[in-house]
Amino acid sequence: MDPVTRFAQCLRTWLLAAVFLAAGSTAARADEWLFAVNLYGWFPSVAGDVTFQNGAGGGRDLDVSADDLLGALDFVFLGGFAMRKGNWGAFTDLIYLDLSGSDRQLLNALVPGGPGLQVDAAFELESTVWTLAGQYRVLDAPQVSADAVLGFRYLGLDMALDLTLEGPLPPELPTAHLSRNPQHWDGIIGMRGEFRPGGDWILPYYVDVGAGDSSLTWQALVGVGYRFDWGDVTLAYRHLAYVFDDSAKADLDLGFSGAGLGMTFRF
Length: 267
Known about the structure:
mainly beta; ten-stranded antiparallel β-barrel; 2 helices; Lipocalin
């Protein structure tokens, strides 16, 4: 059994055990609806690697800094909504990014001794990560709370790349338009809650793991926040990972990691 599969099975077992062991200590809550809106900023670094399976062998590394993402950013929305009544609740989280950029590269090597050619590359990327899940309060003590989470996560990508060759001859050079729009759905199971060390300080946490169209996806968050009458302000570190195994084409490991600052409004 490979390490990724062992990790996923161990984490699923731990989460299920936590749910059943903590269920007996659940405290009753007031039977009223509670709502929360979360707005935050999170611009992670992107890292990963691709291993080709088509006979070429080897792998390729991917490393994009948060500064690179900000420089290519056209539009972004990051936010979430949660609701609860008694021990039951649900939440959703949406990340939408619209990126674009261009680059120009001289290609003299293609025509040795001849006029220089250059390729203009323009790319566009729209990315959507949407999580929707139900939750049940399995632990509610003065210093800690824990909710079992069950739901799904969607990853949608819309990628386009336009390549244009320019040079003195011939007058018309070929162009190319490449596009892909993969969509991936994964079921997830997890745990979320917070520690309350004292006063109005909180230490929120979240972890989930899942699979479906991807071989493995998992997410983890830890943070520190301060609670006001109207809601919370939180500084957190978040990691979101995907593993795609395609024996006919390539294996892709992709991870998003970075700090984020958010505000939660409760009503």
